[in-house]
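re: that chain from earlier
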Amino acid sequence: MKKFSLQLLVSILTFLLTTVVINAKEKNKDCNYTTNGKTYSGKCSFYSTSLNGNRTTSGEKYDKDKFTAAHRTLPFGTKVKVTDARTGKSTIVRINDRGPYVKNRVIDISNAAAKELGVVSRGVFAGKVEVLEKANQN
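^ sequence. v structure.
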């Protein structure tokens, strides 16, 4: 009976993992970004919803429902992939603000990006930021 239960569990886990991988590939199939080699790792956080509508350093209004982020040095318009180290979930955001201003934080992401990653309840999370497409610096 234990052997059957173990085989059933392995089969179910295999099915679930296959489904997750296929869905992730389908979700990102139109994403033609390639990393340009620059990666940042460390603590990541997200903007408070109370900042919605405030001006960012780039002059844009912060919109909690858009996939944007703040980084200290990357040019505005740069697209980066943010990955939650715990779950492996990732999303793509565009840099439109400066920050984070809290020591040892790598990036501040919008509320929409935080929801997609599933990190809203954690607040701060360990993550990786990969530069995908660097904006032209004028």
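Residues 1-30 form one domain.
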